[in-house]
Amino acid sequence: MGRKEDNIKRATEVMHERERIRNLAIAAHIDHGKTTLSDNLIAGAGMMSEELAGKSRVLDFDDQESARGITINAASASMVHSVEGEDYLINLIDTPGHVDFGGDVTRAMRAVDGCIILTCAVEGAMPQTETVVRQALKEKVRPVLFINKVDRLINELQVTPEDMMARFQEQIIKVNDLIRTFAPEQHKTDWQVDVAKGTVAFGSAYHNWGITVPFMQKTGVNFPEIFEYCNNEQQKELAKKAPVHEVLLDMAVEKLPSPLVAQEYRIPNIWQGELDTDVGKSMVSCDSDGPLSLMITKIWMDPHAGEVAVGRVYSGTIKQGETVWASGAGKAERVQQVSMMVGGDRIQVPGVSAGNIAALTGVRSAAAGVTITRDKDETPFEAIRHYSEPVVTVAIEPKSMKDLPKFIGALRSLAKSDASLSVDTNHETGEALLSGMGELHLEITIYRLEEEQGIKVNQSNPIVVYRESIGSDNKGRPFEGKSPNRHNRFYVEVEQLPENVINALREGDLGDGPVRTKDAKEVGNKFGELGMDKDLMRKIYAINATTVLVNDTKGIQNLHETRELIIEAFNDVCKKGPIADEPLTGVMMRLVDAKLHEDAIHRGPAQTIPAVRNAMKGALLRANSVLFEPIQKIRIDAPTEWAGGITRQLITRRGVIEDMPVEGDVTCVIGKMPVAESFGFSNDIRAATQGRAVWNTENAGYEQVPIELFHKTVGEIRERKGLKEEIPGEAQYTD
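The structure assignment produced for this chain is given below.
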């Protein structure tokens, strides 16, 4: 039996020993070495040739990943690692570093309990490092730190040992600051990474060596020796003494929690069902004999098997051939195959038990974020909140109308597999609006449509997704919305939400969707803790992203019968604001009064929804509607002689330069610019620096469109959408 086959056999045995399972992700800024490290960990476990480690990129099995040299999809591998004669099952997920694919990082964090945060010894903690640490901690995933590319400090920059230690300390402090800021309250201290405690490792994934203090103590290898090996170009010999896979997997086993430990504190964070029920108790205790509860975190297309759903089993055992329900599905489905994953390879097994990551085929209703159970009515997991929203849109349509049915099906499949992708299809014309995290995200998606699905498409130029909001309020001046039959009237006031409340809504701390009457008091109290009037917020009806609806009426007869219709109208307005049909953000809508016809037949959907919708849109206009645009943080490194060209490029694109630190002959330009001005930036910055610049971007939220550009921008959006050129006034919503 070969090493790979032996490893797989051992994996299926250890799978049921919950205290000997470690589910972990590797997360980092782009190009800091995650996939090279993953290769070396897999090779060290005997799942691939050590000679190919760092070259084959086994977890970058997608052809676009190979072609572009970046990780696009979160991919997993199960392997066995021995510590002191005991086998441990490591379920490893390699995550993307590019900002456009941050949604995959968020979803991966739902599936794991621990995370190796990887930083570059030369570049340090970068913008995306902060994002991935934040994503991990939000899901109560415990971090450890690996400082990679230490050999570059020694060989290229030729730093002294003292300088090197100072750089390390700076990175550790920065990561601990992030942990202190974003970790759950009870773990802000004990999750701090510490060299002495063995939760910080150093090394070179490319040269396959690593070191921690416990490993130094065990082997006698020390930093003076490491300097000597690197200076003498003897890193192969160093890799034999301190192989990176042994160092890091030892650290994962010893310092990161098993699912048996982690689920006790993670389940209350990601599942809002009753913990004292059979399924609640089973998940908290990670019981493989309990009711089935599995959450899908990834859908990928296998050229032979079709859709493969990958997810974490929190309770019970998922078995081949059994019948299951996907949350929200209309019928039960049969699981055709159950597998463990090694990159693009699926290792078929009879079943996968609680605490592990499983791959399923046959469950067509599965999608990223969906819960799989045996009971149709079981409480699903909390929705996964993504830190970034789609900011760029392209309009696409099939070149041949005969491909229209296939085109619509393919888009539906892409949206299932990538929850960061938004698809809005016109079934009559075949045109679809495809919204993603950036140009690259959409480029990859369209490539998959054309090359993998065989559907050639026409596409528009990229379009920016804006957000509508308000610049003031209309307190004391409610706007009246009348139903078409004039028998029902609704009165709405709107006001801006405080920034801290908007952030909490964006983080998912306050929930999303309709608020059940029995939960309204608790939700209101949460708003009260953020400084809002808790008595008012206890009347909350619904939350849509960062906008909330409150029923602030008193004694309106029959109003409760229209509650669902009012919420439906509210969701319509949140999706399409009054000035440009763009989504709404940062607003509290208060229904302050209503006059309803006593006969239910006269206050049905056709009457109530338009009336409420008009009241809300009119109120928004009365409160001075404004437009927000997406902003990107940007960091550009280039030889100092090219700094002038870089700054000119940013300034001409409405960019703001925040800092320009210089290290040696390299200048780092740090700033921000609107996404609307970023198209074509890659080509222009290359031209301005003769290809010498390296840059990274990160989504930085939204900022208000400058007043002088407001009418021009809104006019362009309305023209593109085929709306009347004139921005509507209050009068349009009066009748």
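Interim note for the steering committee: Residues 392-465 form a domain with the Alpha-Beta Plaits fold (CATH 3.30.70.870). The radius of gyration is 27 Å.
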